[in-house]
C-alpha cells in the first residue's frame, strides 16, 4: 500500500499517556454510584450492574502475574478520528499484562459479532494503523445489538474464541446496548465482560465523568480549517453568503465549537432555537436582518453555520416530524407503494391541519427528505436533509420581498456547503491520538480488574497528558428513562448544548459583534509536529467547560 510522507512520519508518533498507565496498574474503587435520574427504574432493569463504584487506576508497585486474556473489539456507528488508536491502546494494554493475550476484531460493527465474522489483530496489523484516521482496520456498522437472540448468537463465537471481554467503541446508543449486554451476560453467568468506549464526532456523549467523546476534537479542527478558508475567500471576493451545514446529528456542539474557532457572522444553535420556541420564519427573519445590515455597510457577503439537526429543534417542525414518524412507522409499506410524485399530496392529506400546513409550506426537496427511511435507532437521517438550501432559499424570498418594500438595497448570492464526512476519518489530532490510545489502554485495565458494564474514562484532559486520570464509569450511572419508539427505555442521557454553559455564553457574548464586523479567524490545518501550543490545544469547548 502506498503511503503519504505524513502517514509514514505519523506512524512513529508515540501517544502521550497518563503517569498511571506508564507501568503496572491497580484499580482503586471509589464511591458507589446512582443513575442520573429514574434510579428505581434503572436499578430494577440492571440488578447486576447498577450502583457499582467509580474506578480510578493507580500505579501498582507490586504487580501480580495476570493470566493471558483473549479480548474482542467492535467499532460501532459513525467513524470518528482515533478509533484505530483505541484498538492500539487496547492491544498494547492486554499484551503488557501478558504477552500471550490475543485481540480479535469483529468485522463491520456489531453485525460481525452476530454473524461470526472477525479477524485476529496481530502486532503487524496494529502497527499498520497506529495514529491513522478511519475505522477500516475492521470496519464499522450500525446494526443494533439489542435482542437476547443476538446476545446468545454473539456468545457462541465469544466462547469459541475463548474471549473474556468485549470492548464496544460507540456513541450513546451503542454504549447503552453494551450495558444491556453486560447485564445479560452477567445475569446468565456467561463469563464475558463488556466494556464501552465513548466515541462520536458529535460530542454529545459527555457528562461529569466523560469529558468528551473522541473524534470531536479532530473533526471540529478539520471543519474549522475549511470554514476559515471559506471565510478568507468570502472576505476576498466579497460577493457571496456561504451557508455551511455541519454534522452533529441532534446536538449543536460541532457548530458551537467551530463558531468559537472561526468567528463567523451567524451561527445557529439548535438548542437555543428550541428554548426560545423560534419558528422557521423567526430564524429566516434573523438571518435576513443580518444580511440587510451588512449590506447597508457595503458588505454583501458573510458566513453562516447551521447545525445539521436544526429542523428537529424548531418546535413546530419537531411536532411535524413526530407525527410523520408515527404515521410512517404504521404505514411504511403503504407509503412506499405510492409513486414518488404522489407522496407529498398523500402525506398532506394524512396529517393534522397544523402539521399538514407546515409540510405543504416546505420546499419540495426538504419535504421529501423528511419522509426518507429512519436509521436503525429510529432517528430521521438529518445528514440527508439540505437545511442549508432550505434556509438560503427562504432568506432569498424574504429579501426579495424587502427589496420590493424598499427596506433591502443590497445583493444576496448564496453558496452551500455541507461538512461532515470530510472530518470523520481525518488523521487524529495529537489530542485524539493521545486520548484514544489512553481510552483503549484503560479498557484493558478495566478488563484485567474483572470489571463489566463500565465505560473507559480518561479525565483532566486539558492538562498535559501525563496528568490525565484513567478510570472507569459504570454505564448505568449515565442512564435515565426516555421514550423511544413509543416505549420508555433506559438510555444514556444525550448531552445537548447547555445554554447556561460556558461555551455557549462565550459565543453569545460575541455573536452580535461578529455578525456586523468581519472578525473571521483562520485556524489553518491540524498540525502534528511542532510547538505544543500549535499541536496539542484541546477544543475551545473543553477549555471553557473546565475553566
Ligand atoms: P455516531 O453518533 O454513530 O458517532 O455518528 C455520528 C454521525 O457522523 C452524525 O454526525 C451524522 O448525522 C451521522 O453519523 C451520519 O450517519 P451515516 O454515517 O450513517 O451516514
Description:
The chain has 547 residues and is of the alpha/beta class. The protein has three domains: 28-215 and 428-484, Rossmann fold; 218-270 and 293-308 and 386-423 and 495-547, Phosphofructokinase domain (Rossmann fold, 3-Layer(aba) Sandwich); 310-382, Phosphofructokinase, domain 3 (Arc Repressor Mutant, subunit A), CATH 1.10.10. 45% of the residues lie in helices and 16% in strands. It has helices at residues 5-11, 39-45, 83-97, 110-115, 123-129, 148-160, 172-187, 216-237, 253-262, 270-275, 280-296, 310-313, 315-337, 340-350, 353-361, 364-369, 387-405, 421-424, 430-448, 502-516, 532-535, 540-545, and strands at residues 25-32, 53-59, 70-75, 102-106, 118-120, 163-170, 193-198, 241-246, 266-267, 302-307, 414-419, 454-459, 469-474, 479-484, 487-492. Strands 1-2-13-12-7-6-3-4-5 form a nine-stranded mixed β-sheet, with helices on both faces. Strand 14 and strand 15 form a beta hairpin. It is globular. The two termini are 45 Å apart. Bound molecules: 1,6-di-O-phosphono-beta-D-fructofuranose (FBP). The site of 1,6-di-O-phosphono-beta-D-fructofuranose has 14 residues, from loops. 1,6-di-O-phosphono-beta-D-fructofuranose is lined by residues 77-78, 80, 171, 200-202, 247-249, 308, 382-383, 424.
Amino acid at each position: 500500500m502506498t503511503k503519504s510522507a505524513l502517514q509514514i512520519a505519523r506512524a512513529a508518533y508515540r501517544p502521550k499517556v497518563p503517569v498511571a498507565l506508564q507501568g503496572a496498574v491497580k484499580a482503586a474503587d471509589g464511591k458507589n454510584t446512582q443513575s442520573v435520574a429514574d434510579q428505581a427504574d434503572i436499578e430494577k432493569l440492571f440488578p447486576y450492574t447498577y450502583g457499582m463504584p467509580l474506578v480510578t487506576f493507580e500505579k501498582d508497585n507490586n504487580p501480580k502475574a495476570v493470566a493471558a486474556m483473549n479480548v474482542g473489539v467492535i467499532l460501532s456507528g459513525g467513524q470518528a478520528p482515533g478509533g484505530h488508536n483505541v484498538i492500539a491502546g487496547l492491544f498494547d494494554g492486554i499484551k503488557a499484562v501478558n504477552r500471550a493475550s490475543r485481540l480479535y476484531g469483529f468485522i463491520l460493527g456489531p453485525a460481525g459479532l452476530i454473524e461470526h465474522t472477525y479477524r485476529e489483530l496481530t502486532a503487524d496489523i496494529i502497527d499498520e494503523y497506529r495514529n491513522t484516521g478511519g475505522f477500516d482496520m475492521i470496519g464499522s456498522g450500525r446494526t443494533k445489538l439489542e435482542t437476547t437472540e443476538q446476545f446468545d448468537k454473539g456468545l457462541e463465537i465469544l466462547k469459541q474464541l475463548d474471549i473474556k471481554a468485549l470492548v464496544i467503541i460507540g456513541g450513546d446508543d451503542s454504549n447503552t446496548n453494551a450495558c444491556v449486554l453486560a447485564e445479560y451476560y452477567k445475569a446468565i453467568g456467561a463469563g464475558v465482560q463488556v466494556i464501552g468506549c465513548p466515541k462520536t464526532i458529535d460530542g454529545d456523549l459527555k457528562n461529569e465523568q466523560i469529558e468528551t467523546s473522541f473524534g470531536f476534537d479532530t473533526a471540529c479542527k478539520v471543519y474549522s480549517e475549511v470554514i476559515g478558508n471559506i471565510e478568507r475567500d468570502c472576505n476576498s471576493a466579497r460577493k457571496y453568503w456561504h451557508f455551511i451545514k455541519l454534522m452533529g446529528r441532534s446536538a449543536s456542539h460541532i457548530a458551537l465549537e467551530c463558531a468559537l474557532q472561526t468567528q463567523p457572522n451567524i451561527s445557529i444553535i439548535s438548542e437555543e432555537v428550541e428554548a426560545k420556541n423560534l419558528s422557521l420564519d423567526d430564524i429566516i427573519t434573523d438571518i435576513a436582518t443580518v444580511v440587510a445590515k451588512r449590506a447597508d455597510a457595503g458588505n454583501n457577503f458573510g458566513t453562516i453555520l447551521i447545525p445539521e439537526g436544526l429542523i428537529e429543534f424548531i418546535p413546530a417542525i419537531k411536532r411535524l416530524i413526530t407525527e410523520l414518524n408515527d404515521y410512517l412507522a404504521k404505514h411504511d409499506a403503504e407509503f412506499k407503494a405510492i409513486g414518488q410524485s404522489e407522496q407529498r399530496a398523500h402525506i398532506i392529506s394524512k396529517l393534522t391541519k397544523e402539521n399538514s400546513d407546515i409540510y405543504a409550506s416546505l420546499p419540495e426537496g426538504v419535504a421529501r427528505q423528511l419522509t426518507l427511511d429512519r436509521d436503525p435507532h429510529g432517528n430521521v437521517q438529518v445528514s440527508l436533509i439540505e437545511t442549508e438550501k432550505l434556509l438560503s432559499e427562504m432568506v432569498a424570498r424574504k429579501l426579495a420581498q424587502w427589496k420590493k418594500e424598499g427596506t433591502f438595497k443590497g445583493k444576496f448570492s448564496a453558496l452551500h456547503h455541507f461538512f461532515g464526512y470530510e472530518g470523520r476519518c481525518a488523521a487524529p489530532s495529537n489530542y485524539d491520538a493521545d486520548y484514544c490510545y489512553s481510552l483503549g489502554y484503560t479498557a484493558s485495565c478495566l478488563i484485567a480488574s474483572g470489571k463489566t458494564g463500565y465505560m473507559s474514562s480518561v479525565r483532566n484532559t486539558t492538562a498535559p497528558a501525563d496528568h490525565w486520570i484513567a478510570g472507569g464509569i459504570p454505564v448505568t450511572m449515565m442512564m435515565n428513562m426516555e421514550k423511544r419508539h413509543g416505549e420508555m427505555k433506559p438510555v444514556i442521557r444525550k448531552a445537548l448544548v447547555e445554554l447556561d454553559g460556558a461555551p455557549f455564553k462565550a459565543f453569545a457574548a460575541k455573536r452580535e459583534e461578529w455578525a456586523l464586523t468581519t472578525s473571521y479567524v483562520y485556524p489553518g490545518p491540524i498540525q502534528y509536529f511542532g510547538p505544543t501550543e500549535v499541536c496539542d490545544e484541546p477544543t475551545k469547548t473543553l477549555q471553557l467547560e473546565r475553566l
